[in-house]
Amino acid sequence: MNQDTLLEIKNIYISVELDGHSLPIVEDVSLSLKAGEILALVGESGCGKSVTAQSIMQLLPKPLKIESGEIKMNSHKQGKIIDITKMDPRGAEIRKIRGNEIAMIFQEPMSSFSPLHTIGNQLMEVIRIHRKASKPKAKAIAVEMLDKVGIPGAARVVDQYPHELSGGMRQRAMIAKALSCNPTLLIADEPTTALDVTIQAQVLTLMHGLQSEFGMAIIFITHDLGVVAQVADRVAIMYLGNIIEQGTVREILKNPKHPYTVNLIEAVPRLGRLEGRKALVPIQGSVPSLYDRPVGCPFVTRCTRVINNRCEEAMPRLLSMSTDHQVACFLYDSTEGETS
Amino acid sequence: MEPLIKIRDLDVTFPIGKSGFFGKPTAYLQAVSGISLDIHKRETLGLVGESGSGKTTLGRAILHLEKPTRGKVELRLDDEYVDLEDLNTKELRKIWRHMQMVFQDPYASLNPRMTVREIIAEPLVVNRKGNKNDILEKVEKVAEMCGLQRDQLGRYPHAFSGGQRQRIAIARALALMPQFIVSDEPVSALDVSIQAQILNLFKELQNKLGLTYLFIAHDLATVAHVCDRVAVMYLGQIVELTETEKIFYSPKHPYTEALMSAIPDIDPDRKMNPVLSSGERPNPANPPSGCRFHTRCRYVEPHCKEVQPELSEIVEGHFVACHRAESLTLQGAIE
Ligand SMILES: Nc1ncnc2c1ncn2[C@@H]1O[C@H](COP(=O)(O)OP(=O)(O)OP(=O)(O)O)[C@@H](O)[C@H]1O
Ligand SMILES: Nc1ncnc2c1ncn2[C@@H]1O[C@H](COP(=O)(O)OP(=O)(O)O)[C@@H](O)[C@H]1O
Ligand code: SF4
Ligand code: SF4
Ligand SMILES: [Mg+2]
Ligand SMILES: [Mg+2]
């Protein structure tokens, strides 16, 4: 693993156990993240974004499990490279990572706060564990964190209960909580999807600011390409449990190669096109369910550029187009693909 | 041209917080407050504003699915205006042939125990629109218009994807051939790759049938794409109303400016520069005095806290409710 690489996911397979059958949910996903980098993980609902994120924390719910692959992290706090997949999901080792080196924020902020305790007490608990601070010191840090995430009247809010805050403020408080352990990696699962645009803009600006201030890396999960363009350095596009294209944001959004990415960008209404207002170009059909995963390329049921006798036979490999642009599509693979 | 729908001084007030089981409400929440608005035939009028600003409530009140507390709604039918307030339940039901609503959640709004054919036919049956064969024929016609295959009509909603369910919901709303449709966030629950199909369907149906839409949505790029005019709501009131181009590129209300500056553009070279940097959303049950936006407005003056600005037409067709509308130079969305 490279020195400046923070996290490296290699060929991870995640499956779900249903009625005695094991169905793949995430297939052969590889991702890598440098320290201080913002990586967006993009895809439509059900494509496996949250599951991938949960696997990094060993937080997969019961019927799901990591079948194979590695998730390696360059632990700054421990000064060594660790393999998360080797850890017991309930063991002490992963608990040293979770909420410490890796923090996670969720789409629904209520889920990371207990309704019974004040915001302040919940932040202080984290701060006292991770920073070994005394109680009054921890409270001071809690107020400082709330203030940093732009909560007006932080000194008052610290004594309030989660339900007393609005959605946007709770989201900020959750970010404050995640950040109070000084993580090197923050995983944000659709942190702004439930928010109004003005509040979303505030949270995005905030995360950007905090990223440059604290230098942490962020995995930002979203289905909104606009959000990707605004916050991320790199982006990985997922479809049916596979990464089908990845690279720098500018490269992927301005020079997409995979038919799915190309179509997706065409299908989204955007302001620049207001003049003339052409009809949008929809993608035919819909995302197949897990049970109808087609053989071969996952996009084959909707793709307009299918290569007969090839796309339905094998899964295209992720190949490099340039330094930081990879695509998994036979249109760009001149070698004879291996058949599976 | 005479508007299709005239809305005047509309209020919808909800009682909230009761003291005891039979007690009187302890407070009231004005979800819609003094709204006047004309909706023109064949137009798509967008309705935007943050969560809780009253968009759904206004949509429902226009149809009288929610009884307005004050004010009136008139629908033009055969060159005459019908005042919805004068109608009893039975007469309202007749009016709903002309005015329909499509809801946000295509999962929740379809009866899981009815086949698609029954779902689309129901409004026709209830309104006794012909005999069984006539109705079945109509169902097939409208289903086809909405892109549903005939062999799918015998299936139940759970067998369909989100996009297809939204087609079913639209077909049902269209079955009675209404003139006016309120569509409340019709694509927000759908996969991004499916949204375009439904948005194009709306446009197609409008061209074919001359429909008029009130299009409620929070995705501003979608609104820009489909709407002719846009009304911006803030805490139960319309703060700006004009053509789409003007709302997006030359807004006159500070809240519209804040909204437009917060649109995350898909072009990474067009970085957003959100202007609304702080400020909590006020409690809708206890809105601020004077201009309701004054607690978050960066152009606020002392006067704004005292006097409520009226929605007035500052140039032809451009309505703004702000004391400083004529002197401020605001920034629109990135062009
Ligand atoms: N039946 C009700 N009883 C009490 N309050 C209500 C009721 N329905 C709506 N409200 C309140 O009225 C206000 C406007 O609600 P409405 O649902 O119209 O908002 P909206 O603009 O459609 O929001 P969203 O974008 O979240 O759908 C909100 O403060 C809401 O809590
Ligand atoms: N607890 C679970 N049990 C069974 N299937 C699950 C579970 N969690 C997720 N899945 C399935 O895994 C796939 C990926 O889910 P998820 O990662 O949540 O998608 P998203 O990209 O929307 O975050 C979906 O098909 C989903 O139905
Ligand atoms: S591999 Fe084939 S089916 Fe898949 S995206 Fe490329 S051309 Fe389309
Ligand atoms: S009236 Fe005053 S407070 Fe209200 S929007 Fe205009 S400038 Fe801002
Ligand atoms: Mg998810
Ligand atoms: Mg609503």
Write the layout of secondary structure elements.
The complex is a heterodimer of chains A (340) and B (335).
Chain A: E1 5-18, E2 21-34, E3 38-42, H1 49-56, E4 64-75, E5 80-83, H2 92-97, E6 102-105, H3 119-131, H4 135-148, H5 154-157, H6 167-179, E7 185-189, H7 197-214, E8 217-222, H8 225-231, E9 234-239, E10 242-248, H9 249-254, H10 259-267, E11 319-322, E12 325-327
Parallel strand pairs in A: 3-8, 3-9, 6-7, 7-8
Antiparallel strand pairs in A: 1-2, 1-4, 4-5, 9-10, 10-12, 11-12
Chain B: E1 5-18, E2 25-39, E3 44-48, H1 55-62, E4 70-77, E5 80-83, H2 89-95, E6 99-102, H3 116-126, H4 132-145, H5 162-174, E7 180-184, H6 192-209, E8 212-216, H7 220-226, E9 229-234, E10 237-243, H8 244-249, H9 254-261, E11 312-315, E12 318-320
Parallel strand pairs in B: 3-8, 3-9, 6-7, 7-8
Antiparallel strand pairs in B: 1-2, 1-4, 4-5, 9-10, 10-12, 11-12
Helix pairs in contact in B: 3-4, 3-5, 4-5, 5-6
The complex binds adenosine-5'-triphosphate, adenosine-5'-diphosphate, iron/sulfur cluster (SF4) (2 copies) and magnesium ion (2 copies).
Order of helices and strands of chain A: EEEHEEHEHHHHEHEHEEHHEE
Low-confidence stretches of chain A: none
Low-confidence stretches of chain B: none
The dominant shape of chain B is globular
Q: Describe the sheet with the most strands of chain B.
A: 8 strands, mixed
What oligomeric state best describes the polypeptide chains here? heterodimer
| Structural class designation of chain A | alpha/beta
Could you please describe the fold and organization of this structure?
The complex is a heterodimer of chains A (340) and B (335). With 340 residues, chain A is an alpha/beta fold. Among the domains of chain A are: 81 residues, no CATH class; 77 residues, no CATH class. Helix content of chain A is 29%, strand content 25%. In chain A, the strands form 2 sheets. Chain A has an 8-stranded mixed β-sheet with strand order 6-7-8-3-9-10-12-11, sandwiched between helices. Chain A has a 4-stranded antiparallel β-sheet with strand order 2-1-4-5, with helices on one face. In chain A, helix 3 packs across helix 4 and helix 6 runs parallel beside helix 7. Chain A is globular and about 70 Å long. Chain A starts with a strand and ends in a 13-residue tail after the last strand. Chain B is 27% helix and 24% strand. Chain B has 9 helices and 12 strands. In chain B, the strands form 2 sheets. Chain B has an 8-stranded mixed β-sheet with strand order 6-7-8-3-9-10-12-11, sandwiched between helices. A 4-stranded antiparallel β-sheet of chain B has the order 2-1-4-5. The mean pLDDT of chain B is 91. Chains A and B meet through helix 6, helix 7, helix 8, helix 9 and helix 10 of A and helix 5, helix 6, helix 7, helix 8 and helix 9 of B. The complex binds adenosine-5'-triphosphate (ATP), adenosine-5'-diphosphate (ADP), iron/sulfur cluster (2 copies) and magnesium ion (MG) (2 copies).
